[in-house]
Amino acid sequence: MKKVKIIYNPSSGRQTVERRLNRLCKLLFEDGYTINKFTTRKKDDAMMETIKTCNEDWDIIIASGGDGTVNEVAKGIANSARKVPVAILSSGTVNDFANYLKLPNNIYDFYKMIKGEKTIDVDLGKANDEYFVNVAAGGLLSNVGYQVPTETKMLFGRLAYYFEGLKEITLQSFEPIRVKIQSKEYTSEEDILLFLISNSSSIGGFKKLAPNASVLDGLLDVLMIKKTDVQNLANIFFSIFSGGHVNHPSVIYFKTNKIIMDSNKAVELDVDGEFGGKLPATFEVVPKAFRIIV
After folding, report:
1. Which end of the chain has the smaller Cβ count within 10 Å, N or C?
2. Is 22 helix (H, G, I), strand (E, B) or coil?
3. At what angle do helices 67-78 and 45-55 cross, to 10 degrees?
4. Are 117 and 293 in contact (CB under 8 A)?
């Protein structure tokens, strides 16, 4: 008899989530699974419950929520001795990680996936002491994820991020950030508008923002947009949909397992859609740290 812990964020996504979870619980229960559902109330609840679950005799964790919930569960796994496999049931505004792994959204298909018990061990990223499953970022638009109000996300879905992004562009000047970059592959001092340190290719709903990224390669993908004019920036953003932006002369793009960045300004970091401190920061990959049911 398998024991399943469901860690559920009730504020993530639309109101159909509860019904979908109840249907999944019914399928699992009728098949002999033992189920316990934990509802998160505040920040770090999912992480602490994951650590507790790993210290007990649970066989599977189902993480139901957006990227923030998945991030907390991943942090809990990374801080535990036992790596309980995690099934990710997308219910957030933009669940990049679930989309990237092409995980089923249909409840019956999700149930069959759990029954199949196929797992892969994927990489996590680390920004100083903060783990991330998708991306750490700084500069223009990087704070959109954690500034969009929950009510707006629930009303508009992923469009909320784009609306907020357009507002940010109109409010911010295009003042570049002077950064020092140190890695085996690339060391320089650059004036940049934006940087992304990515573990997966899908970020903020854009499926090809880091087109060569893989959660299985033991590397992080670094993307930086150098100081440029508005027209060039518009061209770069339009080519993101095809992944062609990485070939633009104003874009730096490479892979590494570790990069150190510093700036003479107080540059805030967005880590999987949440505030993650400020530069300076060391970004590194943690290979095969997160076991996912696929």
Report:
1. N
2. helix
3. 40
4. yes
Question: Which pairing describes strands 34-39 and 3-8: parallel, antiparallel, or unpaired?
Answer: parallel
**Taking the CA of residue 275 as centre, how many other CA atoms within 13 Å lie in the half-sphere pointing to its CB?**
7
Phi then psi for residue 37, to 5 deg, are -110, 125
Question: CA nearest 273: which of 80, 127, 175?
Answer: 127
pLDDT (tens digit, 9 = 90+) per residue, 210-246?
889 999 999 999 999 998 887 887 788 788 878 888 9
Residue 157's contacts (CB-CB under 8 Å, 6 or more residues apart) are 14, 93, 94
The sign of the torsion formed by the CA atoms of 263, 269, 275, 281 equals negative
Burial 217-248 (b: 16+ CB within 10 A, else e): eebbbbbbbbbbeeebbeebeebbeebebbeb
The tokens describing 211, both together, are: 């087109």
Q: For the chain, list the domains and their CATH numbers.
A: 3-117 (3.40.50.10330), 130-287 (2.60.200.40)
Contacting residues for 132 by C-beta, under 8 A, at least 6 apart: 71, 74, 124, 125, 126, 199, 271, 272, 276
Tokens of 1: 């008899």
Residue of 262, 260, 126, 268 lying closest to 186 (CA atoms): 260
Active site residues: 274
